[in-house]
């Protein structure tokens, strides 16, 4: 009975480890998906939802940096996504 309990506990630990590895791998795949996307893609997907997006030439780099900070919260973007979009808009 004692041995059985230890085995059950071990199985639990292994199971929990497998689940957390799966979650970690999934999170990794998610950020790789973001990494694969260009600034232009992220911009097209995230910035037209609420308004027509002004063209990149409308604002200077400094202005896009500020707008990026404001719109990051509105569009719920990660830091990485925002950086890419701002880089695209500042070209
Ligand atoms: C959840 C809705 C929402 C999303 C998503 C969103 N915006 Fe906005 N945006 C707004 C609102 C509301 C305003 C007007 C009020 C303001 O300026 O804060 C605005 C204003 C702007 C302006 C005008 C600023 C000015 O001074 O004329 C620009 C440029 C802009 N957004 C760019 C973007 C970009 C780039 C993205 C993508 C990263 C984006 N927005 C995503 C809601 C959104």
Automatic annotation (TrEMBL):
Top-rank taxon: Bacteria
Q: Where is the signal peptide?
A: 1-22
Q: Print the keywords alphabetically.
A: Heme, Iron, Metal-binding, Signal
GO MF, one term, reads: metal ion binding
Q: What sequence ranges are listed for the domain Cytochrome c?
A: 35-89
Spell out the Gene3D superfamilies in the cross-references: Cytochrome c-like domain (1.10.760.10)
- Supply the InterPro entries for this chain: Cyt_c-like_dom, Cyt_c-like_dom_sf
This chain's protein is named Cytochrome c domain-containing protein
> Which organism encodes this protein?
Puia dinghuensis
Q: What is the lineage of its organism?
A: Bacteria, Pseudomonadati, Bacteroidota, Chitinophagia, Chitinophagales
């Amino acid at each position: 009975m004692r041995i059985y309990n230890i085995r059950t506990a071990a199985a639990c630990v292994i199971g929990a480890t497998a689940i957390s590895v799966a979650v970690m791998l999934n999170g990794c795949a998610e950020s790789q998906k973001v990494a694969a996307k260009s600034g232009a893609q992220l911009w097209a997907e995230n910035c037209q939802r609420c308004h027509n997006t002004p063209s990149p030439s409308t604002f200077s780099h400094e202005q896009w940096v500020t707008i990026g900070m404001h719109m990051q919260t509105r569009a719920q973007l990660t830091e990485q996504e925002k950086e890419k979009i701002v880089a695209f808009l500042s070209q």
